[in-house]
């Protein structure tokens, strides 16, 4: 039997507004998982996304051979099994990423931000919510193009983090389907990638040392960083959190950024009206002054 204490404390009628596709027999289990996901990952699914979340959970449920969501919840409650939380974190993360995403933001980084970085010290760049590494490797390629390979290897350290272990493993492997490279120019594809099977490409090995990948839940505290960053990329992830957690994350990022450093969000994620210490420079770009 499902321990419904968490469900009963947090159950809101609005949670079922868009749940026509969710069987009544699984609704308590869905609500439990909905709140577990929010508490464990901080990811927020508004009412219009509940059916989508349910369908993701059902796909995972079938893959793991549980009879229904009720059995999944019982396993989560009664077994000290780290694989199920890891699988849940993976399946509810969108992980929709590709190389050279949002060219306007990347162009601003190349033309306006790179020239401000201090030449006297190595540059530490954090790609938060890095999915399978597309953003981190994109930045590494840009750095090689701007600095040359030797200087980029000596000057730049890019950290990519994600909540999902499988995504981190894929990033370390550096192999991608051609769909991830649709925004990559033919010359860049030829110079920085090599064929790795049918419709697959791998990042060239001499780019990989610039990037390091680690698992990190942005909601966790404290973050395990010994040094502050010059630039933080946190794109297309903040809108998965509620407003309170958004502000907590960007303010903690402020504390982990060097004076004069930068925060880059997506053009669709706007902090202009938020009570933040970051100074807005242009759409999706903020600076620590």
Summarize the structure.
This protein has helices spanning 5-10, 27-41, 50-63, 69-78, 83-92, 103-113, 134-147, 149-155, 165-173, 186-192, 243-255, and strands spanning 123-127, 156-162, 175-177, 193-195, 200-203, 211-215, 229-233, 257-264, 279-282, 285-287. By secondary structure, it is an alpha/beta fold. It folds into two domains: 5-92, no CATH class; 103-287, Vaccinia Virus protein VP39 (Rossmann fold, 3-Layer(aba) Sandwich).
Q: Ranges with pLDDT <50 over ≥5 residues?
A: 4-19
What's the total helix number?
11
**Widest beta sheet: strand line-up:** 6-2-1-7-8-10-9
Main beta sheet:
7 strands, mixed
Kindly identify the CATH topology of the largest domain: Rossmann fold
Structural key phrases:
11 helices; 289 residues; 3-stranded antiparallel sheet; 40% helix; 10 strands; 7-stranded mixed sheet; Rossmann fold; alpha/beta; 2 domains
SSE order and pairing:
Blueprint: H1 5-10, H2 27-41, H3 50-63, H4 69-78, H5 83-92, H6 103-113, E1 123-127, H7 134-147, H8 149-155, E2 156-162, H9 165-173, E3 175-177, H10 186-192, E4 193-195, E5 200-203, E6 211-215, E7 229-233, H11 243-255, E8 257-264, E9 279-282, E10 285-287
Parallel strand pairs: 1-2, 1-7, 2-6, 7-8
Antiparallel strand pairs: 3-5, 4-5, 8-10, 9-10
